[in-house]
Please model this.
Amino acid sequence: MENLEFPLVLDQVSSFCITLSGTQKILDTVPYKNLDDIVPELQRVSEFKDSFNSDNPIPNHGFESIEKELNRLQIENSTLEISGFRKILSIDQTVLALKKYFKKFEEYYIHLHPFSEKVDHHPQISENIHKVIDRYGEVKDDASELLSSIRSDLKQVRKRIQSSFSKALKSYDQSGYLDEIKESIVDNRRVLAVSAMYRKKIRGTILGVKT
Model:
């Protein structure tokens, strides 16, 4: 094995791995000793290489590690960031796409197709994630009754704030208290652009030179 520089080959291959578990799996690889075990592997490698020149190449099969997310799911009352659910969903969709692909072209991938059949896919994972996260990766308003109620209340508050701001803008503009730009954005908030000489005439907090 040393004479064939096998460890060096493994080290070079592992550098292309994205996840730590993938890297470790490569480094733990040992040579086959039985010809019957080698041939199927070579056949799958051959089919994989041929796919690059195919009119229908193998779909994307890269993914990010979800080891941290899986560990947290085992902890009672733990929470996951939306990004964690996105990664889990991405892997689920990648597995489904690959299984469908190899099924569709099973006559061409006579060795990769049965190999792909060994990979489990659980549709309920994506179904449950889609119930609470929309296609843009954001939590849906109706993900839960409590969240729906909170967001509904927030929308009403925003509407009242918007209405109040618009009335103040119109009133102070007609009074000639506002600068030419009339309004601005400070810390992601709409603010009135008040001329310096009229600042004391308007109730509110000064956030800048003219606002």
